[in-house]
Amino acid sequence: MLRKPFLNFVMLGFLLLSCDDKETSKEITPVGVETLTIGNTNNESSITSESYPGTIQAEMDAQLSFQVSGDVNKIHVNIGDYVEKGSLIANIDPTTYVEQYEAQQAQADLAEENYTRINEVYKKGSIAEIRMIEARSNFKQAQSAANAAYQNVKKTKLRAPFSGYIGNKMMETGDVASPGMPVVELLDMDQVQAIISLSDKEVNTYKVGDSATVTVSALDKKFTGVLTEIAVQSGRQNPVYKAKITIPNPDKILKPGMACQTSFNKSTNKTETENNLQSIVLPVQVVSITDEGQNFVYVVDTEKNTAQRKFVEIGTLYNDGIAIEKGLQKGDVIITSGYHKLTNNTPVKVLSK
């Protein structure tokens, strides 16, 4: 009776030992992953220079309008026309203003005659000085009113304040114009500007005079420009600062409204660390977040062939990824696929593409 329990105990011990041997001898299969290397120039997706989407606009853009009201007699230009400075753009019916001028000028002529007569009498000592002063004052007032009326006559003709192209027409012949109501849009396209937005973290990174490359995909061409304006105040809705890159446009192939991508040429006086930090842009899905709100990526420990969690600080979100401001350096091997299967120290096998 005692032997049977003893035998059962011995058999159970052998069974547990055999199971333990199987578990200890079982090898963990490495997780297959794809990677990119920070600073690897052969892999274009590993480092993306900062690129800012923007829009081309004319350097000078004016909406021309009359300073007096009236019926539009004729508009002398069409959309796309090139006009020289001083060219006649449009005119309104001047009849009312001509009549007003003639009436005012007649009053001025009468006042001048009266002043001349009274002044002659005053010189002879036959009239008080105050009468001569009053006559002179009346003449000057009447002449000023006539001059103002003449200016209104001149304002019935709308002329180009600078040379450029007609970008749009807001009125046609027969319309009634009011002061300040746009008639046509005039564009100076000898130079154009790429308008981009900088975040509050980037606005102090660049300065006026920095060189930039502007890529217009519609033309499949790149253009070199210079940063000429940076806003000192952000928009009301979000912390975004407008910047303007001026680009020569001698052939007039850059048109207002074209979409573009702008990247700044790195300054030679920046440190290598600054350049590395500014150039690291990773796909958004590669960056994970902990329950505590910390961002991290997985990198490959090339000596142990394991995945290592590395905490990072993220920056601006772009169309092609998200900027990494801190936590990575040149040479880090970032895991870009298979990361959802990983934990810290998980064995990995880098898959060749």
Describe this protein with a few key phrases:
single chain, 353 residues, alpha+beta, conserved putative lor/sdh protein from methanococcus maripaludis s2 fold, Elongation Factor Tu (Ef-tu), domain 3, Helix Hairpins, six-stranded antiparallel β-barrel, five-stranded antiparallel sheet, 4 helices, 20 strands, 24% helix, 37% strand, elongated
Overview in brief:
With about 350 residues, the protein is an alpha+beta fold. The protein has helices at about 5-25, 95-125, 130-155, 270-280, and strands spanning about 30-35, 50-65, 70-75, 80-85, 90, 155-160, 165-170, 175, 180-200, 210-215, 220-230, 240-250, 260-265, 280, 290, 295-300, 305-320, 320-325, 335, 350. Helices cover about 25% and strands about 35% of the residues.
Task: Please describe what this structure looks like.
This protein has 353 residues and is α+β, with helices and mostly antiparallel strands. Among the domains are: 31-48 and 275-350, Beta Barrel (conserved putative lor/sdh protein from methanococcus maripaludis s2 fold), CATH 2.40.420.20; 52-59 and 189-270, Elongation Factor Tu (Ef-tu), domain 3; 94-155, Helix Hairpins (Orthogonal Bundle), CATH 1.10.287. It has helices spanning 3-25, 95-123, 129-154, 272-279; strands at 31-37, 52-65, 70-75, 82-83, 88-92, 157-159, 164-169, 176-177, 182-199, 211-216, 221-230, 240-248, 259-264, 281-282, 288-289, 295-301, 306-318, 321-326, 333-337, 348-350. The strands form 4 sheets. Strands 2-9-12-11-10-13 form a 6-stranded antiparallel beta barrel. Strands 14-18-17-16-15 form a 5-stranded antiparallel beta sheet. Helix 2 packs antiparallel against helix 3 (129-154). The two termini are 68 Å apart. Residues 21-25, 41-48 and 267-277 have low confidence and may be disordered.
